[in-house]
Structure formats: structure tokens, C-alpha cells
Amino acid sequence: MWIVRRLLSSAVLTAGHYGLLCRTTGSLPAVSPRYLQCTCCWRSRITVAGFDALNGSLSSELCSDDKQSLDAFYTPEQRAAILQLLNNATESELASIKLLRGRKSVNIVEYRSRHGPFKNLESVINVPLVKHKSAVIVFNSILNPPEKKEKRKAKIQLAKFIRPEIDRGHLEEANTIVSVICGTNKVAWAHMDRALTVLDWQQHECSSFMKGTYMASAYLEEISSVVSHIPDADFFIVEKPGISMQNTTLFPVMAHLRTVEAMLFALLTQRQEASDSPRVLNMMRVAVGRHFGLIVGESRTSGAQVVRQMMTESVTKKSPRVTFPHDLLVKYRNAFQMGSRNRGEELSDALLQAVAFYELLGE
User: Is the CB of residue 238 less than 8 Å from the CB of residue 223?
Assistant: First the structure.
């Protein structure tokens, strides 16, 4: 209305001879009719010259929607469906509705506890932060919930967990793999087929690891002995440690792991023909940890509990995730006890890496 008064006060009105669109010679320039819009509903348009209709329209017709009861816009069935949800939904369920995230869903629950269930739609706007227009959007969202589109799981890129790069088809044809894990004083491996059946599962103590000056001859003798016991397979998967180069306190461990890793690659590669594609591959330790939910912050936690669960399910379930031979279940039934000084971390990691290889490849 202040716009109207401003226009009236600036118009030239003398004894009814001049209106807003009239001008005296040499005074105001010619003015063409323009439109005003009601800022409440943004629907109707009225010419500036139509002052007689403007006052009445602004006060009644243009903003009449806000004065109508919300219940008048919906059928009895629709009102019942809306009230049923608003009166019974939990805070988390309300938060999933459009415009009700955050404080509004909390306010609705608090309002119900203080005043009882909503008896009509109009009473909903008594909830703090819920206004007329937002209430209409909420009601329409309840009656016409958006369709939830299933998110397609992104195809795993091999380069994110397997090195060097190799054609996916070759990996999918693998009938058996050997997963190899190196620790500070042990090397463990798990021989597994594509049906996730454990064919062999062992570890070797390596007494010369991380002793003295890291003699190459001592390392080579130990690792050669280990490799002689590893069965043949389509691929050998060697764990790629996730130790940061910036962590100088762990430099001796990193040097040890890299040395063993290089020797395993060299000795296992001798089993393949020169023209073959690589059969000895690295698998990222972090990728295995994420697959089994073992990453906490930037560190990977023990997977011994996961392996114990797999061993239990192999006996108790008809279709277990992993199948273990009876002799291996007996052999390692106490290898992963909580609080044990020797929990078989290398053994559990070797098994989890083999399982993760096949499961990630199948996604």
C-alpha cells in the first residue's frame, strides 16, 4: 500500500483536471500504463492507472488464499492420510519428509507431546517454524512422496585395489588364487577357489626377519623356503602395505615389508612364462579393510573377529560365506581368541584378502 500512496502523492492532481497519466505542457514526460503485482501471491496484475480497484483488491481478493483453512484444500481421505502420518511418525520418519528436516521435525514431536495429536490440518501451523506455505508443501509431499531411485553401486575400478593393471577378463577366469601376507616375523597365505572354499591355509615363522642389519642373504633364504611351500594357482595376490613414507618411526618396518614384497614378486614370477600376463599382483591393504569395515579413521583394525565369524558360519550355516575344510577348522579354532598374544593376524589377513579379491571382482 505504501507504493500506492507514494504514487498518489507524486501525481499531479489539481481540481480533477490532471491525473497520473496526464501532463501539462513542458512538465512530466509521457507515461505508459505499467503493471503492479501483489507481493503476497504474485498472481494478479493491476494497471497503475486503476487506483479505484487497487485498494479493494489488495485487501481482499489477492491474498485470500492465506485466509482459507488448510483443510479446505484436501478431501477427507487426504486429510486423514496426512494426519495419520503427522500424529504417528517418529522424529526420524518426519525428517525424511520434504521441508521437515532438522528442527521442524523435533518441534512437531514436542507439540504432539504437549497438546496431543493434531485434530485438523489448520492446527499444524501452530507448530513453531511451520508456516502456511511450508505446510502445504509438507502435506503434498506426504500425499505424493518422491520415488526413491535405487543408486547403482559404482563399478569397482581394478586400479583402485589391484596393481599392476591387468585385464579384468583374465582375473574373472581365475579358478584359484593364493593370497600372501607378510608380517614382522611371519608369512601367511590362503589358497582359495572362486567358490570361496579354502584349499590350504598356512603360516611360516621367519626367525631372521628384522634382525641386525637386514642381511639380504638371510631374507632370501627364509623367503625361498616359504615360496617352496606355496601351492600353484592362477594368481598370487601379495598385500601392498599402507604405511606412509612420512611416518619415520615406522621406517624399519616399512623397509622390511618392502624387501619381503620385492623378493616374493621375484620368486613367484619365476613360475610363469615370460609371455604370460602378470600372475603376481599387489592388492591394497586399505581396500580390503574398507570391504570388511575395518577402517577406523586412517587405521585398519584387526580382522580376527571377522574370520572367527566366518569359521563359525561354515559349521552352522547351510550356505556359508566361506567354506573351510574340517581339518583347518580344528587346526585354527583357537588361533583368533581375543586377548591372545598370538592372534594369528597374518593368517586372518591372508584369508580376508582372498575373500575380498573374489567379492570385489564380482561387484
Answer: no
Q: Is the separation of the CB atoms in 181 and 349 below 8 Å?
A: yes
Tell me the one-letter amino acid at 359. E
| Bridge partners, residue 300, by sequence | 295
CB–CB of 157/166 below 8 Å? no
Please report the pLDDT score of residue 69 as a whole number.
Answer: 80
Q: 310, 285, 308, 309: which is closest to 298 by C-alpha?
A: 285
The one-letter code for the residue type at 196 is: L
**CB under 8 Å to 100, separation ≥6 — which residues?**
94, 108, 138
CB contact at 8 A, 189 and 328 = no
Q: Which of 10, 261, 287, 304 is nearest to 162 (CA)?
A: 287
**Cβ atoms of 239 and 180 closer than 8 Å:** yes
Structure confidence at residue 30 (pLDDT) = 54
The residues near 84 (Cβ < 8 Å, ≥ 6 apart) are none
- Name beta bridge partners: 295: 300
> Residues 219-278: pLDDT tens digits?
899 999 999 999 999 999 999 887 766 777 888 888 888 889 999 999 999 888 766 789
Contacts of 221-225 with CB under 8 Å at 24 or more apart are: 223/187, 223/260, 223/263, 223/264, 223/267, 224/267
Query: Which pLDDT tens digit goes with each residue over 120-167?
Result: 888 888 899 888 888 888 888 888 887 766 545 444 566 678 988 888
